[in-house]
Every structure is written in structure tokens, then in C-alpha cells.
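Bit of a strange request maybe. I'm writing a small parser for C-alpha cell strings and I need a real example to test against, not something I typed by hand. Could someone generate the C-alpha cells for this chain?
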Amino acid sequence: MAKYKDPQQLFDTRRSAWKTAVIASAGETSGEVDLGDSYGYLMVNIPTITSATLSITVAMESGGTFVDLDSASYVAGTGALGTTFLLGGWQFIKIVSSATQGAERTFYVRGVEL
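Reply from user aminoacidic:
Good idea to test on real output. This should exercise your parser:
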């Protein structure tokens, strides 16, 4: 009988620790998140939110000028789900909501190389 490996062992997957990205009450943009290294993908755990489309902005350095990541837009509705964005090697990110949030929202994010 063949032994099955844990899926984590099948691939050399590099990933950061989970980090928080918080959008303040009455806000639309989270604070900066440093993923600790550059990654190809961004996993996002989306909390319940005021209905919105979410996007990602990125910067070349901490405290740098953040610009829209053109491949990262997601119609999240009212959230309470997870998704993965193509990040393309960026390290410094912010989450942006198309709608002002009615309360503080904490997103959990981490960079991943698949």
C-alpha cells in the first residue's frame, strides 16, 4: 500500500507568517503591511465588511509611495471569506476598500510562493 504524504511536503512552499491589515472604522485603506519578503501570491482572510470591492496597493519600500496593483481587485460583497491575489513579488502592501467601513475591520494576510 502506498503511503500518502502530507500535502505540505509535496511542494516546496515558502510562506510568511499571518499578519494583520486593519481598516479603521470610517476608513477605506489599511495600514501598511510588511510581508517580510517578496512573494508571488497574497492570501487574504476577509472579515465581514460593509459591502465593497477590495483591491491591493503596493510600494517598493516601507513608507514608500503606494500604487494600485492592477491584477488585484475582488468583489468581496460583505466578506467573511478567503481569497488569493496574484502579488507578483511585492513585499509592502495595503488593502483598499471601495466603500467606507462601518466598523474597524481586521484582515489576515500572508505572502506565499506556490
